[in-house]
């Protein structure tokens, strides 16, 4: 019989970039940008959200975190539990950096921790994939590193690749939202054999290049004909950035998830970092798009439980706690 064994849990969840160009719905990498979620059993439900844009999300039982946490309790054979939810997120909403995956994975891990780990990581990954509809972002946020996975509607086997040490990324985040749902509607129902063969080759080569640390292969491997060409019309400047990024010092570049964020991979020792960043910013600016850049590294750890005990957590208010050193 499952029961609550921890009344308060805090988890730290990384953002993610999906697809990495050709690996549509199959590849994802966790990034050093985070959300923190505190989940507690309460008398009545209360949702407190902090961070840019978080005020647009519901603060009642319609909240995604609340719904996902309840789905874990329900699967464990329990009734609905009133919850206090506090979440601070650095992950920009609806920009292609996996904010929905971070909310889903955070809620699953925290609720499962409250139940004394009633479900295995593989089961959580399966539940997360079903909720998100594809395994790429949720796999990366849950496990960290680069996750290669395949979802056939029934199971989601995966392999974790440790990102090469020298891999660093520059993301450019446009000042407008593009929902994953809208960007998926831009895709055709059918593809030509040559485009499918092209993507199988590129995606396989990219996985092999990343697994073996052959960064010089990325520029040939990070190309796509399945989703990026159809989504480019939704993101001014995207085609130019993807075409020219290697000339400007990148190892390769891609649309991050469903966009509108673009991500360039670069060797962390490269002398061209400033040149690459300036190129991305000026391209967007020329298109009349305000955007901000961030330098991010791969996150290796995935979602972590950072506090488990009620005694510890109540020594500090939530915001102070997550801003403390080392969290
Ligand atoms: N912390 C959160 N709490 C509740 N819902 C969230 C949270 N983060 C994201 N979401 C939901 O996910 C949506 C964004 O998902 P999506 O369109 O897939 O973009 P993204 O690339 O950011 O994942 C938001 O509009 C919101 O409904
Ligand atoms: N494979 C998905 C990834 C969506 O990622 P997100 O970060 O934009 O939610 C897709 O390309 O649709």
TrEMBL record:
It is found in: Cytoplasm. PANTHER family: HOMOSERINE KINASE, HOMOSERINE/4-DIPHOSPHOCYTIDYL-2-C-METHYL-D-ERYTHRITOL KINASE. Keywords: Amino-acid biosynthesis, ATP-binding, Cytoplasm, Kinase, Nucleotide-binding, Threonine biosynthesis, Transferase. ATP binds at residues 92-102. The lineage of its organism: Bacteria, Bacillati, Bacillota, Bacilli, Bacillales. Residues 207-274 form the GHMP kinase C-terminal domain. Its main location: cytoplasm. It holds the Pfam family GHMP_kinases_C. Belongs to the GHMP kinase family. Homoserine kinase subfamily. Residues 63-145 form the GHMP kinase N-terminal domain. Catalyzes the ATP-dependent phosphorylation of L-homoserine to L-homoserine phosphate. This is Homoserine kinase. It catalyses: L-homoserine + ATP = O-phospho-L-homoserine + ADP + H(+).
């Amino acid at each position: 019989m499952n029961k609550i064994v921890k009344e308060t849990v805090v988890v730290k969840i990384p953002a993610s970039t999906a697809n990495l160009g050709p690996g549509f719905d199959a590849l994802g990498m966790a990034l050093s940008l985070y959300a923190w979620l505190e989940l507690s059993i309460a008398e009545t439900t209360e949702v407190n959200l902090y961070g840019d844009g978080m005020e647009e999300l519901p603060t009642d039982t319609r909240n995604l975190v609340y719904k996902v946490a309840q789905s874990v309790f329900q699967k464990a054979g329990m009734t609905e539990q009133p919850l206090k939810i506090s979440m601070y997120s650095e992950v920009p909403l609806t920009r292609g950096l996996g904010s929905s995956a971070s909310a889903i994975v955070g809620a699953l891990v925290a609720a499962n921790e409250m139940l004394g780990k009633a479900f295995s990581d593989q089961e959580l990954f399966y539940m997360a994939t079903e909720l998100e509809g594809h395994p790429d972002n949720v796999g990366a946020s849950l496990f960290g590193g680069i996750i290669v996975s395949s979802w056939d509607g029934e199971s989601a086997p995966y392999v974790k690749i440790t990102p090469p040490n020298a891999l660093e990324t520059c993301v450019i985040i446009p000042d407008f939202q593009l929902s994953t749902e809208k960007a998926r509607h831009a895709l055709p129902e059918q593809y030509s054999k040559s485009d499918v063969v092209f993507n199988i080759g590129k995606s396989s080569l990219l996985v092999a290049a990343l697994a073996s640390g052959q960064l010089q292969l990325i520029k040939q491997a990070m190309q796509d004909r399945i989703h990026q060409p159809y989504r480019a019309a939704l993101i001014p400047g995207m085609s130019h950035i993807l075409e020219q990024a290697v000339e400007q010092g990148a190892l390769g570049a891609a649309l991050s998830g469903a966009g509108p964020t673009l991500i360039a991979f670069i060797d962390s020792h490269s002398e061209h970092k400033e040149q690459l960043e300036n190129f991305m910013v000026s391209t967007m600016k020329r298109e009349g798009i305000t955007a901000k850049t961030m330098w991010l590294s791969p996150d290796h750890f995935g979602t972590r439980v950072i506090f488990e005990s009620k005694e510890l957590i109540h020594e500090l208010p939530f915001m102070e706690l997550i801003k403390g050193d080392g969290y």
